[in-house]
Amino acid sequence: MALNILKLCVGCDSVEDLEAWVAHKLDERRRNGEPAEHWHTTRMVPTRGAEITDGGSLYWVIKGSVQCRQLITEIRPFTDDQGIGRCRIVLDPQIIRTEWQPRRPFQGWRYLKAEDAPADLGKGGAGLAEMPPGLRRELAELGLL
Q1: For the segment 53-111, what is each residue's pLDDT rounded down to a tens digit?
Q2: Among 3, 17, 30, 75, who pairs with 51 as Cys (CB 3.0-4.6 Å)?
Q3: Is 126 exposed, middle or buried (0-12, 13-18, 19+ CB in 10 A)?
Q4: Torsion of CA 135, 136, 137, 142, to 10 degrees
């Protein structure tokens, strides 16, 4: 069974913001002649990398709720210019919306077991995905989502 990662999406107010940022970074890499891939850089390297890359996803917490995920395709440890060990978590650029699941703030990232992860929004959730982010947030705060 795949293992997931849970991470705060700092700087994004909505899934739409994250989608726009991913598209911008992919375009920027294409313009620079680099491979058009998307990754998130962290300080810590997951010790359970084989479990994560076996179908795991990075679940994004946006404004206090898990709202979406991206499939993790690779984990690449590296050393930066200052000699500090870091890790690139390579992600599929497609963002999959999930049911909202409230989460308190935390630092870094956390492992997330498959049984604890929110379900993907299916075809029945298409209306939720089209709903304005502010309205979705208010309904989630009221416990209606």
Answers
A1: 999 999 999 999 999 999 999 999 999 999 999 999 999 999 999 999 999 989 989 99
A2: 3
A3: exposed
A4: 90
Is 41 buried (19+), middle (13-18) or exposed (0-12) by CB count in 10 A? exposed
As beta bridge partners, residue 66 has 61, 101
CA pair distance 23, 37, nearest whole angstrom: 10
Please give the model's pTM, rounded to 2 decimal places. 0.84
Q: Largest alpha-carbon pair distance within the chain?
A: 48
* Span 1-37, pLDDT tens digits: 789 999 999 999 999 999 999 999 999 999 999 999 9
How far apart CA 92 and CA 73 sit, in angstroms, is 6
CB 67 within 8 A of CB 98: yes
Asked whether 25 and 135 are in contact (CB, 8 A), the reply is no
